[in-house]
Amino acid sequence: MRLKSKILKSMLTIALMFIALIVYGSYDSRKAHEMERQFCASVSAGMPIAGLQEKAIAMGADKRMTKFYEGEKHESTFMAVFHGIFIFDRYICEFSITTDKVNAIKNSHLD
Hints:
This protein is an alpha+beta fold. The chain has helices at about 1-40, 50-60, and strands at about 65-70, 75-85, 90-100, 100-110. It has one domain (about 1-110). A hairpin with a 4-residue loop joins strand 1 (about 65-70) and strand 2. The mean pLDDT is about 90.
């Protein structure tokens, strides 16, 4: 009986930890999605790009993944990445930039 009780307690503990991870992961994902939506809504087409990266980081974007990417013919892209607890749970606000101004805004989710 004693062994069954220990096994049952261990299984219950593991199940509770798994449930807690799922609940926190869901909360963190929603939080990242909300931060990404707020940031994207704060930027509009035609805005200058000065301070865009700093603003994204201040609003919760990941410092390592929030960058400018140079393209061809005076076009570049800026990506602000907000992520949740899980490794591939990323919300991305992508800006197409022409002549130092935001040209287009695109939201995406990597799951």
